[in-house]
Amino acid sequence: MEKFVCKHPWSHLEINNPNGDVTMCCNNGWVLGNVNKNTVEEIWNGEGFRAARVLMLREGAHGMCPHTCPVLQGGKRYEDMSWYTDLDPQSPVRRNAELNEDEFAAGVIELKSKPRWFRFTYSYACNLDCYHCYQREDATAHRKLPDGFMTELPTYARIAQIFFPFGGEPFFFAPIRDLLNKLAGKIEGKFFFITNGTLLTNQIYEMFEASNIATITVSLDAATAHSFAELRLRGRNASWDTVLGNLKKLQALKRRKGFTFTVSMTVNKVNAREIEEFVDLATSHDAEPILLLVANPYQTNSFQRQYLTFSQDDIAEMLKQVDRSIVKVRDHQLLGSETHLHHLRATILQHRIVNNRPMLFKVKNTARKMLRKLPDPLRGIVGKWVQDFRARQLESLGTKDS
Questions:
Q1: What is the C-alpha separation between 124 and 144, in angstroms, rounded?
Q2: Which strand (E) or helix (H) includes residue 263?
Q3: How many C-beta atoms surround the C-beta of residue 117 within 10 A?
């Protein structure tokens, strides 16, 4: 296998947990620093990032990242930042990007360039309580990123290509709304937003109008009001009609401003037969559908039984709907959506072999616990073998008929 050297340790800085831990992406959990202890500048060229750059050059992404990483599966095309060449040659965003490209090409370990992709999670709090949220237990703690870090943000927003407030629900927080309003129309880089689509006020739409936007993603997890109520509301004050209304507004905004508009759904027992309906909902609003099989957030047997145990009829229907949906997104020339659907198909087939059987899932959980008890060197060897095996299995299943 040819070594693939990913740019993320050179270009990306993410704080995906309000505890302040810094990583190079959301798919690799290696903690490279913490904004409660150090400034962004100190972390960017600190021990963690330098070590990640060295390891990436030596091992490549297949050697240091999980096999499930979407980049390794051909996804995450929205993270392509080659558009910096369209910017004013004298702009700080372009000059930083050009320096970063040169440093990556030369394999520089300590950088003079700054992060081009800057993503941060202010808090896990949210107005919804989604069935699969891995943040649920932490959301009630109301932990937030430190004030010192928040004062650093405008500096990095002015030089980053992508500025990405994450959550929880980012529009749930007054400090984030205030920051975005102050930055709107004043930075050359682009915003990236992920939202549940329930809190988009007139003020937020005014901010959208004034801003450069790369992508807006609405996370739905449903194609019908029934699934939305069962999977997302849990008694919270939100409505499916509000979401549909905002999809129409975002469709009109996209036609005016030309950003990438996507909607996402995690496939589970409740919405398993809504795959094609979800694809139709997305394309009818000029949006790209992104679908994936839901992850079991805490690897519990109860979650597996309730949301990830399908009948053979369910699986057969899911595969048929995926195949029909692939044709539909191909007709719309949605290459990213087609890639995700092919991956979903392979994941469903893989799931059918092991994880769709509750007893085998229990065995895997037991094996996982035993793996954690192994000495570090041996755990690394075994874990790497398991990752490679799963990657080969997933690649093989992607080419097989149901």
A1: 8
A2: strand 260-267
A3: 21
Read off the tokens for 222.
């449903």
Name the phi and psi angles at 285, rounded to 5.
-110, 20
Look at residue 379 in the predicted model and tell me its pLDDT.
61
Q: What is the largest CA-CA distance in the chain?
A: 61
Spans of the chain, pLDDT less than 50:
235, 399-402
C-beta separation of 161 from 93 below 8 A? yes
Helix, strand, or coil (residue 181): helix
The continuous run of DSSP H or E covering 325 comes out as helix 312-331
C-beta of residue 139 within 8 angstroms of C-beta of residue 93? no
Amino acid letter, 19: N
End-to-end Cα separation, the chain, in angstroms: 27
pTM here? 0.84
Distance CA 351, CA 263 (A): 24
* Three-class secondary structure of residue 279 per DSSP: helix
* Residue 10 CB-density burial (10 A; 0-12 exposed, 13-18 middle, 19+ buried): buried
What pLDDT shows up at residue 27?
86
> What 8-state DSSP symbol labels residue 110?
S
Residues 6+ apart with CB under 8 A from 154: 179, 182, 183
Q: Provide the 3-class DSSP secondary structure of residue 41.
A: helix
